[in-house]
Amino acid sequence: MDAQGPLSDEGLVQLLTHTGERVEHDTYSAYAADLTADDLRAFWRDMTLVRAFDDEATSLQRQGELGLWVQSWGQEAAQIGSGHVLRGDDFAFPSYREHGVAFTRDVDLPSILKIFRGLEHGAWVPSEHNFHLYTLVIGAHTLHATGYAMGLDRDGLTGTGDPDRDSAVICYFGDGATSQGDVAEALTFASVNNAPVVFFCQNNQFAISESTTRQSKVALADRGKGVGIPSVRVDGNDVIASYAVTQWAMQHARSGQGPVFVEAFTYRMGAHTTSDDPTRYRSKADEEYWAERDPISRLRTHLEAIGELSEEYQAEVAAAAKALAARTREAVRSWVRPPVLDMFDHVYAEPHATVEAERAWFERYDNSFTEAGAH
Fold first, then answer.
1. Does the pLDDT value for residue 1 go beyond 50?
2. Catalytic site positions
């Protein structure tokens, strides 16, 4: 693949090298200038906690407690960095791997697992967190995000110059979703309607087993350029750069200047899901190369180098991570199977005759087994 290909690191915005050294960028350094040592420690803490939760969820799936799990291992910097930019009135639309973003939106992480245990279609109220439910249909939510952003614009909630009023939408998806027609349509609608939405593509290099090189001959950020959307590529394993680029992008959208496409170039260090075997389509050498670029280790190295990561703080975070894992494990094992008729609830916002008829039929059908056993 040539230097302009989808797996090239050419043109990536980077503020923290993989060896933990701070570097400057002519455009985006200013958008990280407000970050303090406390902020950087908070980034490291959040990434560490999210990974501990991720590891525990993987273990629970292997033990048969979850039907499936989708790891975010390796993508913590892109999610925590961008998530910390969001303000209260901003609205996030995730796909199904955005556990770090959920954490920054105050979603209780163990509740996410109800979806993967088959207990609920959605385990949190989107309006309480301004964080939509996980979307399992690849790319479909980009249209939802665009429509919501268009609504913000029409309601006068963007471009007013009032920071307490202006808001925007951020929509997360992976490289594989860029091959979906829904994403192409969303980009077009957002562009021509000047919608205040940031399309945040986490290019983790594999759509399940299909390399990004089989999906595109150019950088994925160029998908935005093709419809007139300003686009930027960022080192998705650099939490500081991810924060800075998202800060610029959200300010751009909130101020009424329209959509932005961000490509966060990262690597899925784990499997696509717990039903996947990545050894069948990628090499050990690649995994080792990207392990050296681990986003958590990178920030930890930097904080230690500048004397801003004490042993006491590390111990506190380790204890918090252990407690979160234990709470997650206890929560999952405490959940019981809900009544089977609950599946008919919340299909529609209002009562629906067809759904009620199906509920009544299923109740009679289910009761027939009890009646048959009584004879």
1. no
2. 268, 272, 281
